[in-house]
Write a structure and sequence with these properties.
The chain is α+β, with helices and mostly antiparallel strands and 152 residues long. It has one domain (17-142): NTF2-like, domain 1 (Nuclear Transport Factor 2, Chain: A, Roll), CATH 3.10.450.100. Helices cover 42% and strands 28% of the residues. It is built from 5 helices and 4 strands; from the N terminus they run αααααββββ. A 4-stranded antiparallel sheet has the order 1-2-3-4. It is elongated and about 90 Å long.
């Protein structure tokens, strides 16, 4: 059936209606990927947040208890205590932002910054490992305020 003089076809036809659906699908896939990444790394971040809370409360022994067996073999409680005292941003943290979370070969990495009570922002990188089904801190790197954390 051919269009009559009173009938008109929509400009651009049905093709114009496809791109919003495609864009919506792409955005949905990206949102799902981000949500899954946060879901699978939430346990790591939870351990880091728990350690920071214990350090803020002055419970160094409790914070040390969240470290891995390998960390404890390489670093005594006395050495850990000295490390925490060397970097006041650990025990005086009032906030944090973790911008990077990843898991590769059963090693998790969390990178971001700590914000101290005085407003100083300190870069931090932690590596975690699963021991008996729970994340434990394997490595802590703290940089002086204003320094960046390498991508390694």
């Amino acid at each position: 059936m051919e269009p009559t003089a009173n009938q008109t076809l929509p400009p651009g036809g049905p093709k114009k209606k496809k791109w919003p659906k495609i864009l919506g699908a792409v955005l949905a896939v990206i949102a799902l990927a981000v949500a899954l990444a946060f879901y699978f790394t939430a346990g790591m971040v939870g351990v880091v947040e728990q350690q920071l809370a214990l350090l803020r409360q002055g419970d160094i022994k409790g914070a040390y208890g969240l470290t891995s067996k390998d960390f404890q073999k390489a670093t005594s409680l006395a050495q850990f205590t000295a490390f925490v005292k060397q970097y006041p941003s650990l025990s005086q943290n009032q906030g944090h932002t973790f911008t990077t979370r990843s898991i590769e070969n059963n090693i998790g990495t969390v990178k971001g910054t700590l914000t101290a009570r005085d407003g100083a922002v300190t870069p931090i990188r932690l590596q975690l490992v699963k021991e008996q089904g729970e994340w434990r801190i394997l490595f802590i790197e703290v940089r002086p305020t204003g320094a960046g954390i390498d991508s390694n």
